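Exercise: predict the structure of this protein bound to TF8.
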Amino acid sequence: MKFVRRTILAAAATGALLAPLAGFAADIKPRLIRFGYGLVENSNQGRAVKYFAEQVEKNSQGKMKVRAIGAAALGPDTQMQQALIGGAQEMMVGSTATLVGITKEMALWDTPFLFNNAKEADAVLDGPIGQKVMDKLQPKGLVGLAYWENGFRNLTNSKRPVQKLEDLDGVKLRVMQNNVYLESFKTLGANAVPLPFSELFSALETKTVDGQENPYNTILSSKFYEVQKYLTVSNHVYSPWIVTVSKKWWDGLSKDEQKILSDAAKAARDFERKDTREEGAKALADLKAKGMQVNELPAAEANRMREKLSKVNATIAADVGQDLWKETQDALAKLRK
Ligand code: TF8
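Solution:
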């Protein structure tokens, strides 16, 4: 009896020692994760998905494999979201803006000029408000794991530099498939056309649309400089990406497997924000070197833009709920003190 107990104790001790090294006793099964995204492999998004894949494989001792599928090869964001909800695809990363049709609270992040800088964005997205909005995905069949940075959006077009608001008049501007964006740019006088990102390059090339708006990083990685002459620094909205999982699939995972994915999504978030900000800091010079003509929206015009766009705030507040709207404004006021 004594011998048996000692053996068990010894085995337990060895197990405990091995556990952190070899994943002893961790409940991990072989899994294949199809992870879709819209940008090209050589982009901040592609690099972060690759980092995520490496983390997951390493932390599951190679049992969980991530197949990263970029360039919207699995379809645009809205199509992938449906595949996740139905369980035909496991994971994706894409704009929160394309989720508004599924979870109206996501419209909070479409508020023009909501964040003044990335620090504010990080604090709110990674804090209780970000979590609250993310949790709204679950009843819709999606699990949100982390917000990554798409970034502050800037205008490009092939017609003329936007020096004043009126320069947007009649410009056919592609917007994301989202009512806040549609309303915002209509309010500014542009002829706003919703299109999936995967159709954007060719729409610009064939002049189906004159312009678009996206962060520097994307203008660079998607080679929009080949088909857009003018870039106007407007920083009109901070746009997050969100990593989501099919809830149908997620619910069948063990706690250990869920933790590996959740931790890796957060580690990749930190990697991605750093990468995005480093690349973003150099991107403007790169875009100029590629031939883009860059102008800053003059402060007075930026203020007019801000003023006009504050009109859509009431709609957003109604959509996301007054409580959430107020909580966000209070949190921002506190951060700015
Ligand atoms: C857009 C977005 C896209 C992202 C990406 C496909 O303009 O900013 O760049 O949704 O994940 O559509």
